[in-house]
Design brief:
about 40% strand; Metal Binding Protein, Guanine Nucleotide Exchange Factor, Chain A; about 120 residues; four-stranded antiparallel beta sheet; 1 helix; three-stranded antiparallel beta sheet; binds zinc ion
Amino acid sequence: MKTYKGSCHCKAITFSFDYGAIESGLRCNCSICRRKGALMSAFTLAPNEINIESEDGKLSLYQFDTNIAKHYFCNSCGIYPFHKTMRKPGHYRINLGCLDDVDTNAIKVEIFDGKSL
Ligand SMILES: [Zn+2]
């Protein structure tokens, strides 16, 4: 296990969690993911497995359609550090590009067909 730390670009939102080696990420073609182009964690974290700290009022929420998935973003820098997934409501996926020590070009990419959900 290792402690991963991450943040949005302006660091108004920071987070950390413990996990093993991150060897792959998820690229999804749903209507929002394809616009963001982010490589998300293939694993999910329960709310008690991630520590999130944000400056007052910086963490904004975007929802659409069924309103099950919760897409969080920093309203200062616009970066999207994590979301709560539709497939496992209440659980987080992490934007791997927001992590300090992960090279998103060096890990395997899994393609996920979210468009068809
Ligand atoms: Zn920010």
